[in-house]
Amino acid sequence: MATSMASSMDLDTDSTPTPTGRIVIQKVAGRSAVTSIFSTYPLKFIRPTKAVSAEVDAVWIYTMSFGGGLVSGDSVTCTMTIGDGCTAVLTTQASTKVYKSVGSKASEQSFEVQIGSSALLAILPDPVTCFASARYSQRQVFYVASDSNLVLVDWLTSGRRMRGEIWDFELYKSTNNIYVEGNQPLFLDSTLLEQGAGLSVADRMQAFHVVAMLVILGPKMALIQNEVQAKIRERNTELFGRRSYGSNPNCKKAKTCSENKAPKAVLLASCSVFGPL
């Protein structure tokens, strides 16, 4: 399921950011365990001990930022290693708030993840919420084996709607790349929303307030993949498949009769298959 707008851009970067986080998960006594974890400002990790029952072999980690959000110029750089056969969940406690930028300085996040053979990583964050005049860029790169498993959710909201800030940020860019067995490209995706001289982001997005992408990868995820594809196919058939003529003899085409028009969509979804079949 993917919604994306891609373009090229340049961001001001003075130098290579200093790493602010590292997580290593490996098998210890037959169970997934955190063997190394480190974070520094503005990133913080929380490792709850009772997120799941003891019978579940999974590591659960929350990410958060000091001050409740990212300020102009913040740069987060994090690496993760998920060992063979391990299971991990990376999530958040609340939306990632991006405060307004000062000049052209963006708030940036970069994640580089290695996922081992038969390992499973689920990245399930709350959405990114960019405040008015904010500039935000994130890049996530995943290196997987042929039998690695990944669930990735990447989404954002239109902003602080109750304050009237609807698609009022300056820039949002999110890049997600997946490489298999080294550097073989498997999935390359980029979403870019930027205010320009033409239509504003709000004009382009119209009544929609959320953009989301979901990646479901790996043999352990086959059942969920099939269920998601079936649900999207069913919904789109219901939404776009109604093309019958009405009983009104004055109605020549269904699209000209308001009584026969499909209801306005509150959710548009598409599903694409990538990788070896």
TrEMBL record:
<dbReference type="Pfam" id="PF01774">
    <property type="entry name" value="UreD"/>
</dbReference>
<dbReference type="InterPro" id="IPR002669">
    <property type="entry name" value="UreD"/>
</dbReference>
<protein>
    <recommendedName>
        <fullName>Urease accessory protein D</fullName>
    </recommendedName>
</protein>
<comment type="similarity">
    <text>Belongs to the UreD family.</text>
</comment>
<keyword id="KW-0143">Chaperone</keyword>
<dbReference type="GO" id="GO:0016151">
    <property type="term" value="F:nickel cation binding"/>
</dbReference>
